[in-house]
């Protein structure tokens, strides 16, 4: 497997540091040894696949190494200090940038997830390769999402569509964006996905014939002007087609760019020459020509797009670009980290990161949820393109106003704005800017500052955040006072001794946890509402309980004896060094022989046996209560499990399912079904098995039934 990666890297970088990449692979292989994915494959398959995706993007050696080790800090006992010593700070910071935050207390799993995304965004502002690694990681996880349960599939796909697809778009990495989009639709709305896929496949041969004819006609004409060119049919993603059908409320037959060709040439001048030939051969549709070469998209995408009418009224799109533009379109910002003859390619792409830096500047003092709202807002907004008086292009969110423009220029310009001119005429500050407008902001040193009413009509998160930041700064003293009072009242209500829990010892502990230098900052954050008071209180409570709380006497939970082993053969579980304990199996995960299991000592109720990958096990905080258990291989007991099946809603599916299971002698104890919001059917079977091998056999049988989309255990 490593050989294929090395081969892929050396195709674009002959001077690749093979020894370094090999060293990174061997460390990852060693540290992940014994770990498996949900598919049952050895865990090393995942980081290797991530590194291969990065190689396809032609990334540098450091990024390839970080891709191989991207889960080492998060999922193994290998420390950041050890990695710095072995691989240097550059690679370590890349790995740390994609590592989730751990060992911090959050009010919810969602808050913890958002804070990890915030950490990743901060790291990508310093080094864009962090997000490229994360995109590769997410892409492989989406490719293997079939091994997750339905709930996890939907949540992962939605997060990918809300966060990672827009990031890939903003950074111009379209090859990753398009595949992620299709995979997301497949799991979020499988009925629509397979419906569009079927419609595409039905007309595939007809469409391919039409494209071949277009390519032949255009090639014959281009040969006459003696230029080097390549023409290919341009594939359209399933998600992109579905999205257009949904937005336009139309059928697939009315999607103009379903039939499309792409022409790639050497020089920019040749792009316009090809455009002239295209328009001479076929009639262009008015309003459907876009010159992204003269006016690139914010992600620096460049190309000429034109939609024309061919023979018999056939409508199709032609894209024209240079080889360099094409590479930028596929790889985006990743193209600026590619190796050329062993040297990093130099290019100025700082402008692509400005929106990230602006978000981080404001986001330092915001709550996790405010940060995520701003982040999503910056990712999702469509753009309008306006000009400064000097002729510079500024991209803004659709519906943007002169105030949005002012804050995009600079915070001080926004704070001192008193008026605006658009195309030489005075306009109101809530005027909706249009592409092509020339905007001139009028400022005054005597301005009293921004107006809170501006928040009612500005649309960009940048402007909203800076207006809020201005008023937060103005009222900082009030926020500090209010925040302190809120924290004290919270702790009083829980009957804590304030002199102790708010002593220097405890406050220093809190500041260290938050990596903050002043309690005033924390009080101000509480007072402004950007930090939840309960989150702060919980950290202090934990420290208080660690120092003064009663230690639970574990001897009351376990009766140790001189015997080495006690067995409960009827249940099939063996527990080393323990006796006189009740044993029960967790209903949340229904372990069966062959599943990796672990025991958890429950006060007064003996031991509960869980599967090791059970979600509830990960949420149990008292690690001292975990105990090793193992299966008794001689047991003949049957164990109940719940199998979840997601299927298409087709007549006769349930009959085929029960027939298949009955034919193989499986005892179904109950069966339930319901229609999901996406039109699929969820079927839950309660069935008895002797081992997980039997459950895997059932999975294989069910997957063969026509209409099955996914099969998984609780």
Describe the protein.
With 714 residues, the chain is of the alpha+beta class. It folds into 6 domains: 2-147, Hypothetical protein af1432 (Orthogonal Bundle); 197-344, Beta Polymerase, domain 2, CATH 3.30.460.10; 352-474, Beta-grasp domain (Ubiquitin-like (UB roll), Roll), CATH 3.10.20; 476-548, no CATH class; 554-631, no CATH class; 639-713, 2-Layer Sandwich (Alpha-Beta Plaits), CATH 3.30.70. Helix content is 47%, strand content 16%. It has 29 helices and 24 strands. The strands form 7 sheets. Strands 1, 2, 3, 4, 5 and 6 form a 6-stranded mixed beta sheet that branches. A 4-stranded mixed beta sheet has the order 16-18-17-19, with no helix packed on it. Strand 5 and strand 6 form a beta hairpin. Helix 2 (18-31) packs parallel to helix 4 (61-68). The longest helix has 21 residues, at 150-170. Mean pLDDT is 80; it is low at 101-107, 338-349 and 550-570.
